[in-house]
Amino acid sequence: MNQMTHPYASERTMPDPDACWDAFLRRDRGVDGQFVGVVLTTGIYCKPSCAARHPKRENMIFLPDPAAARAAGFRACLRCRPDEVGRDRLAVEAAKALIAGAETPPSLDEVAAHAGYAPHHFHRLFKRETGMTPAAYARALRAERLKAALGEENSVTEAIYEAGYNAPSRAYADAERHLGMTPSAWKNGGAGVAIRHALVPTSLGPALVAATEKGLCRISFDEDEADLRRYFPKAELLPADARLDALAKQVSALVDDPAAGADLPVDVRGTAFQQAIWAALCAIPPGETRSYGEIVAAIGKPGAVRAAGTACGDNNLAVLIPCHRVLRSDGGMGGYAYGIERKRALLEREKER
Ligand SMILES: [Zn+2]
C-alpha cells in the first residue's frame, strides 16, 4: 500500500474535509487508517470504508486518527472497528515480512497464526490491504526474484505464471536455484574443471552422479565414466570424495521420492532458452505433467516445440530437473532419455504422494 498516492497523506494532521467526505461516500478502504469520520448526532467515529449508512454531510466531521476522536469524547463504531485498522496494518506488515523471509512460502495457517488472526479472516484482511492473497503475494515475490535471476529474459517468468502454473513454492524455489546457477567454465569441454563422480545404486538402477566443486553437473542412468568423458572431454575426472558421496545419497533419495524435491547445488551451463525451459520444467508441480506445447507457451515461445524437446534432451540433471514431467500433447508418454519405464515409475511415485 503506497500511502503517498493518497491525497490525504501529507495532511495527516488536518485532513481536507471534502476529500474525506468523498472517501466515505466511496467507502474507500485504501484510506482506512488515515483519518476517521465522526457522526456528531451519535458521537460515534468510523473509518472511511464503514458499511453503515452515511449521515448528512453537515453532521460529520473528520479527525486525523482514533486517538484524537477518543480524546474528544467520541466512541468507536462497533461495526467498522476503526481502532483496529492500525493493528490490521501491522499484522499484514508482519505477515509480509514472514513471507519474504521464508525459504518456502508459509501456509495460510502459519501466516495467520503469526499475525494472531483466524485464517479465513486474515486471508480477507490481507487481500484487502495488499490486493492479493498471501499465496499470490508469495508467488509475486518469487516471480520478482526469478525475474532478477533471469536478467534479460523477464518475459519468461511472467509467461510461466500467465500459463497457469500453480506450482508449490518449492518448484519455484527450484527454478530459482537453477536459474541462479553460476556455471563453471564449461566451454572447451570442461578444461580446468575437476569433476568427482560415482555410480550410486538407486531404486531405478545405478545412477551416474557427477559434480564440480560448485555443484552437480550430471545425473543420469545407464552411463559411466566413459560417458562422462564424452560430455566433458577436457575435465579432470576424479573419484568420489565424502562430499560427492553425500550428494550421491541425496540423489538416490530423490529417485525414491521425486516429489520430495531436494536442495542440491547445481553447476550446469545452458543458453538462455535452455535455462528458460529448465525453469519451466521445475515449475511443474510434482504429480502433474505438461506438454511441450504448454512448456513453450509458458516461456512465451509458442513456436519452439521442437527446440524445447531438444532442450529437455540436453538436461544434464535427470530427476532433479524434472523433464520426466513432460508428456506428448495427446497425453502419450512421449520419450525419455533413460527409458519409458523409468519415466512411468517417476511419475507414479509423484502421484502417490
Ligand atoms: Zn463504522
TrEMBL record:
Positions contributing to Zn(2+) binding: 46, 50, 77, 80
Main enzyme class: transferase
Annotated ranges, domain HTH araC/xylS-type: 92-189
Protein EC: 2.1.1.63
Active site (catalytic residues): 46, 323
Keyword field contains Zinc: yes
One of the protein's GO biological processes: DNA repair
Catalysed transformations (reactions): a 6-O-methyl-2'-deoxyguanosine in DNA + L-cysteinyl-[protein] = S-methyl-L-cysteinyl-[protein] + a 2'-deoxyguanosine in DNA; a 4-O-methyl-thymidine in DNA + L-cysteinyl-[protein] = a thymidine in DNA + S-methyl-L-cysteinyl-[protein]
Residue stretches in coiled coil: none
Cofactor(s) the protein requires to work: Zn(2+)
InterPro entries listed in its UniProt record: Ada-like_dom_sf, Ada_DNA_repair_Zn-bd, Bifunct_regulatory_prot_Ada, Homeodomain-like_sf, HTH_AraC, MethylDNA_cys_MeTrfase_AS, MethylDNA_cys_MeTrfase_DNA-bd, MethylDNA_cys_MeTrfase_DNAb
Lineage: superkingdom: Bacteria
Record's cofactor remark: Binds 1 zinc ion per subunit.
GO molecular function: DNA-binding transcription factor activity; methylated-DNA-[protein]-cysteine S-methyltransferase activity; sequence-specific DNA binding; zinc ion binding
Keywords: Activator, DNA damage, DNA repair, Metal-binding, Methyltransferase, Transcription, Transcription regulation, Transferase, Zinc
Similarity comment: family membership: Belongs to the MGMT family.
NCBIfam families named among the record's database cross-references: ogt (TIGR00589), PRK15435.1 (NF011964)
Protein name, per record: methylated-DNA--[protein]-cysteine S-methyltransferase
Species in which this protein is naturally found: Sphingobium baderi
